[in-house]
């Protein structure tokens, strides 16, 4: 491992502490109304309301990074890293899409998607209980009145399907990951190119990891070496996403970490979020 890469790994604990101790509380204190109230009003979100989806996305990246750090000490659990990397990647991509949209429309979509998830969960639970009737262990239902109100919000944001029913997309953007990357490339081509490179290479290495048996530190041979390579890459990938996401959120809330090294990296990423800067920051070029 190069000295520059080692430095990135040493910055992760400080970055995680800063994100959880400073950024998430500031992002989460947004005094926003209920999602449906904001959406029904049809107005642009205020500066505070705009922070809500940022907090959710950064929280996922932080959780993935913390879990990755725990799993790194146990080579036998390396197969879980691709799933953590995927979750962190999609959350980091969400965060960049939100930050690249000054109009606030994507924030409205993200808030509306929370309502879609709420309706979907209620429908799936009702369908399950219809197939396997038993005494309810939880109270979770959406009344007809509440459903009508939530569906009105969903129609306002997403419109209708060809069958005339409210459209319920699988992601708040209505796009697949590859399409989200294409959308981001229009606003931030350099950042998008870097994320797409990680996205493509990550899927290749995840497939390689799944195709090889779990190894221990004493294992040898090409299969064990491939798994160790995949494990190391996914660790660096998740940590990379944490640093980029935290740097973006620090700019959004105008916060600066106490660590001089971390502050310097955040400043560089804020001033020059380019392919070259990212490569230098994450030790991919001399």
Order of helices and strands: HHHHHHHHHHH
The count of β-strands is 0
**Shape category:** globular
- Mean pLDDT, as a whole number? 75
Domain unit count: 1
Structure class: mainly alpha
Radius of gyration: 21 Å
How many strands, which pairing sense, and closed or not: the largest β-sheet? none
Count the DSSP helices: 11
Residue runs with pLDDT of under 50 for 5 or more positions: 274-278
Percent in helix = 55-70%
State the end-to-end distance: 13 Å
Percentage beta strand: under 5%
Description:
The structure is a single chain. By secondary structure, the protein is mostly helical. It has one domain (3-103, 175-281). 70% of the residues lie in helices and 0% in strands. It contains eleven helices and no strands. α9 crosses α10. The longest helix has 32 residues, at 222-253. It is globular, with a radius of gyration of 21 Å. The protein starts with a helix and ends in a 5-residue tail after the last helix.
